[in-house]
Amino acid sequence: MRRAPALSFLLVTVFLDMLGLGLIVPIVPALMTAVTEDATAAVRWSGLLGSIYGLLQFVVSPLLGRLSDRYGRRPILLASLTCLGVDWLAHAISPSPWTLLLFHALAGACAGTSTVVNAYIADVTEPESRARAYGLIGAAFGLGFVAGPTVGGLLGAVDVRLPFFAAAALSFANVAYGWFVLPESRPGDRTTPLTLRMANPVGSLAVVLRRPVLGRLAYARFCADVARMTHQSIWTFFLTYQFVWSTAHIGVVMAAGALAGAVFQARAVGPVVRLLGDKRAAVAGSLLGVASLVGTAFVSVPWMLYVLQAVGVLGSVGGAAAQSWISRSVRANEQGTVQGALTGIGAVAETVVPVAAGAAFGWSLAYASPGWVFVGAAAFGAVSALLLAATPDVRTAPIE
């Protein structure tokens, strides 16, 4: 197994995924307005595109994870990357919102990148090294988040569809790179059954959640996802309301935070988790995240916001540690299945939370208390920390 080229490819894949997404974030409103020729319709279609992507990802991710256990990680990952490239190309050339909806649904159905990447890392790293590897994945994610919107804004100033061509080209280039560089991490096991119970999202989640240890970790993961998505969905609106910051100021602060997080995850997560262990690092990271959210809810001066951002960066150790813990709790022949179920859980949060958090933020503004949304997010983070603390650090039984 050539582990160095494999890990390099995975890091490039995650970086390019986030870069591609970031490229188009500043451009989607202008593209949808150009396609629909109506600003109100553009907002509705943009929301529908996001929802259909999350819904299809929830429905299909468990199947993709199971397929990666049965047929191997490499073909599923390359197929997912190809679908993503097709989706961006469709954005670039489509004359109709219905065409965009069709291809974005296809991309959601093929969105197995994170599922297979997490399973692949579990295949090629020793348990004591996984937190560091997942930290590197988080760093690549953050760097893509920093670079994407900047490059997308520059390309979009030339032509509104140019960022989508660029995102498609990056995806297809990554597929070609992976075709020649990426080895298979684990040969498929054709004896792995493809039953309806394991291939549908409800059945696969039920199988995972009913296992005592893994079920608690999955519930903790969901609560952490709710807290994270609430923060991501509301943060820019909160800063605009609380401090009357410009979009440029907010963008600089977000980029600085993402860059600091990427450096921390790349350099410090591995040593911290080796020192504390997966469980204690996961609990500590969750508690730091809760402290950051509670502080943000009541922040009144801008300088305190930077301190709270730093606390949140330190808390990012929790995600890598929890992911490492989960990967140690399952057998090699079920990594894809479990990661697919967890991707489905994340898709639920990503689909539902932005709408709910937006409604809650609008309600809080009516009472001049915008920070209370972050208190709600902190409550979910606290439940996640409690679940992690109450979970024994033992290996679970295999999935049936």
TrEMBL record:
SUPFAM superfamilies: MFS general substrate transporter. Residues 6-393 form the Major facilitator superfamily (MFS) profile domain. It comes from the Bacteria. GO terms for molecular function: transmembrane transporter activity. The chain crosses the membrane at residues 7-31, 43-64, 76-94, 100-121, 133-158, 164-182, 234-260, 281-300, 306-326, 338-365, 371-390. One of its GO terms (cellular component) is plasma membrane. It is a multi-pass membrane protein. Keywords: Membrane, Transmembrane, Transmembrane helix, Transport. InterPro entries: MFS, MFS_dom, MFS_trans_sf, Sugar_transporter_CS, Tet-R_TetA/multi-R_MdtG-like. Pfam families: MFS_1 (PF07690). It is found in: Cell membrane. Belongs to the major facilitator superfamily. TCR/Tet family. This is MFS transporter, DHA1 family, tetracycline resistance protein. It comes from Micromonospora rhizosphaerae.
